[in-house]
Amino acid sequence: MGWLAEYGSVHTPEPAFDLLINRWLLYQTLVCRIWGRTAFYQSSGAYGFRDQLQDVLALVHIAPQIAREHLLRAARHQFEAGDVLHWWHPPFGRGVRTRFSDDMLWLPYVTAEYVSFTGDETVLTEKVPFRRAPLLKPGQDEQYGLYPETSATYTLFEHCRRALEKGMTSGKHNLP
Predict the structure, then answer these.
(1) Which residues have a Cβ under 8 Å from the Cβ of 44 and sit 6 or more positions away?
(2) Per-residue pLDDT, 171
(3) How far apart are alpha carbons 71 and 106 in whole angstroms?
(4) Mean pLDDT to the nearest integer, 123-151
(5) Residue 65 and residue 117: Cα distance in Å, rounded?
(6) H helices within the chain, ranges in order?
(7) Rounded (10°) angle between helices 64-75 and 106-118
(8) pLDDT (average), residues 78-85
């Protein structure tokens, strides 16, 4: 974990806390959540769209390349309409499309944090495909399946734009 020397670490009056926050929790995030794709509520080895984006957010400061790679991996599991697979299993990508309204919004958020911290704006021009599928039917909450990728590729910026657009039009808004 030589990453810490490059990005610094937390120092408190409690050495045990420093060890926990600077080493152990980051190690657990990387090994369990990113590489193993397992945790208390996720023990299947699937990628969770929202879950792993939240996890790589913790790694942006110590392993920005891992965060970058995962941003592009997640974007590959977004539908043309802007929504995403809630979770999917590698290597084929079979997973569940849902109506969850927050999953997709983690992509632009973590992308913005990554760019802000690293200054790497080139990630915004990286091109990846969307997934193709008909929209969920009225009353249908989810659909498990294998969804093909589009033949065309689009920038990560476009993926983020579609996520935000979909996020603004998803769900019911009880405004006065």
Answers:
(1) 37, 38, 87, 89
(2) 58
(3) 10
(4) 96
(5) 12
(6) 3-7, 15-19, 25-28, 49-59, 64-75, 106-118, 156-169
(7) 150
(8) 97
